[in-house]
Amino acid sequence: MSDSFRLLGIIVVVAVVSLGIGIPVGKYLEREGTGYVNAPAYDSGWITPNINDETIIEHDLGTTEVLVYVLGNNTELNTIHQFRYGGDCTRLPRYRGVMWYKMNNTHISLWTYRDEVRLDYLRVQI
Fold it and tell me: What is the pLDDT of residues 66-78, one digit of tens each?
């Protein structure tokens, strides 16, 4: 690739970033002028996860360009949390936590690790 094409590419990227073209940073998340985030387009409500297995949730949003928010609920401790979100294998051989790992225009898949003990329910908001 010639230097002039590289320079043109940099100029185009700078123009796109500076003009905000195609980059909806904050525009769709913030409720106009309030500083608060809009309500999610999808909310699973509290569901029982499949331990050591995949939990598939149908959202039918028609896109994958979204913000995914996952919450856990431990009824024994009466807590709503994100404890071990993304998974935790720091104390092998135990694997704990939950993570989302696949998404398409209609479904999202979450995995709850086999030794998870603090997750009675989970909730996904997109």
Answer: 989 999 898 988 8
Q: Region of 97 please: left (phi>0), alpha (psi -120 to 50) or beta.
A: left
On whether both 34 and 50 belong to a single domain, the answer is: no
Is 73 within 8 Å of 86 (Cβ atoms)? no
88 has which bridge partners? 96
Tokens for 75, please give them.
């009824």
Per the structure, the complete domain to which residue 19 belongs is given by: 1-38
∠ CA(41), CA(38), CA(98), 5° rounding?
A: 60
Query: Each residue of 42-73: pLDDT tens digit?
Result: 999 999 999 889 999 999 999 999 989 999 89
